[in-house]
């Protein structure tokens, strides 16, 4: 293509003149061809020479049109296509870079969300454990108070029952001793009852 563009219309006309001069004889007349030659190559025929001349002219015109009209349009189309492809490739590279950046940001956000969620869960567990420990301590304190109060009530009831038992045993024993032996010694009876209760673990 570059070689064709370097050949101008003036060069074509020079080539045409050279060809026309080549078919003439040195004396100025036309060279006679052998009678048995091919008619397509009979340059002594003026019609044939005019056809060659018009062929060269038409070829020159076609070459000029191709070199200055058609081929530049082809080059323009190819250049536009090349630029469009390059632009598409550049846009694809930019889109890929943006997609990679978005993916990286998504991964970072996901990691941060997981870390925040884990921290929130840990904090909630610690708060729940602390709350449960506080409530357990309060409940244990209440239970201890209730147990202590119950033990105090049981001890008081036991002491009252033992006092009543001691009194009943003393009265019953004194009455039996007085009835059987005719003796009335409350102090001795009370001491004997106390010893018997102590022996039985009820004192």
Automatic annotation (TrEMBL):
The keyword Cell wall biogenesis/degradation does not apply. Residues 140-167 form a coiled coil. InterPro entries: ATP_synth_b/b'su_bac/chlpt (IPR002146). The chain crosses the membrane at residues 46-66. CDD domains: ATP-synt_Fo_b (cd06503). It is found in: Cell membrane; Endomembrane system. Keywords: ATP synthesis, Cell membrane, CF(0), Coiled coil, Hydrogen ion transport, Ion transport, Membrane, Signal, Transmembrane, Transmembrane helix, Transport. It comes from the Bacteria. The keyword Protein transport does not apply. Residues 1-22 form the signal peptide. It is a single-pass membrane protein. Its main location: membrane. HAMAP family: ATP_synth_b_bprime. F(1)F(0) ATP synthase produces ATP from ADP in the presence of a proton or sodium gradient. F-type ATPases consist of two structural domains, F(1) containing the extramembraneous catalytic core and F(0) containing the membrane proton channel, linked together by a central stalk and a peripheral stalk. During catalysis, ATP synthesis in the catalytic domain of F(1) is coupled via a rotary mechanism of the central stalk subunits to proton translocation. Component of the F(0) channel, it forms part of the peripheral stalk, linking F(1) to F(0). The b'-subunit is a diverged and duplicated form of b found in plants and photosynthetic bacteria. F-type ATPases have 2 components, F(1) - the catalytic core - and F(0) - the membrane proton channel. F(1) has five subunits: alpha(3), beta(3), gamma(1), delta(1), epsilon(1). F(0) has three main subunits: a(1), b(2) and c(10-14). The alpha and beta chains form an alternating ring which encloses part of the gamma chain. F(1) is attached to F(0) by a central stalk formed by the gamma and epsilon chains, while a peripheral stalk is formed by the delta and b chains. Belongs to the ATPase B chain family. This is ATP synthase subunit b. It comes from Roseomonas marmotae. The gene is atpF.
